[in-house]
Amino acid sequence: MRDMDGQDPLAQDRLKLWLRLMKSSSLIEEEIRRRLRSECNSTLPRFDVMAALAQAPGGMRMGEISKRLRTSNGNITGIVDKLEGEGLAERVPVPGDRRANLVKLTVKGQAAFAAQAAAHERWISEILGALNADDIDGMIRRLDPLIGLLEEAGKD
Length: 156
Prior knowledge:
The chain is mainly alpha-helical.
């Protein structure tokens, strides 16, 4: 709805909300990156790749990983190369397609990711520890419809 001057009266409030969402997200991500480096000798992109692979025990093609993480194949290739070199991931041939490989976590990679995921969950709980159950529920209930709208808009 527009006011008499043709302006959206909520435009400034929406901008303030967006800035606060961005700042909150940025501060949380910065802290997670710091803790991954200092406590796990890892990086957030590496953690994200391992998380994607942990959710796909049968393996994923490189393109699937890039699509899920919304990053380039080149970035994924570099991370997978390092994980493979450390024995945390392996490339296995795709049956019926000699040109394609699936990337899977090794047993060692599964164990390493399980430890990192447990630490990550603990860190998020610590970072958001000042929020009570009502705060959390209220934020989720308000953000879910927004996320749904944005995902639908992105499909166009």
